[in-house]
Amino acid sequence: MKPYQVDDQLVNAAKQQALKRFPEGWSGAAAMYTETGRILTSVYVDALNAAACLCHETGAICEAHRLNERICASVCVSKEETVEPFVILTPCGICQERLAYWGLDVEVGVPDKADPTQYHSLKLREVQPYYWRQIYSENKE
Length: 141
Description:
It is an enzyme of class 3 (hydrolase). By secondary structure, this protein is an alpha+beta fold.
């Protein structure tokens, strides 16, 4: 299996999906590599009740489960206005839990502290160094 991490191809796939779905104003999407090199994309699901909304990553995570493919890398992008550049968003805690299903070596995009339009690819274990499941032996490095 080729190790996948967040790269320009994955970031661009997320941006393209965001612009296709939300061409004007606010925009955002997620893109993920599976173990076969497939790129899955998805967008935010809005709902009248805010508790029922779903993060950008959720659709691609569900699709990976449907395909029975392991997610290796994930990135989420967002922008507030049409003319603004996309920024990279670290997965929220719920999406980190969803991605951890495939292990703590899943790579995720995180924003560069000096320029959030740029990214770094980190393993979930690096994003969440005190992750609760690491106390169990099968999840230790």
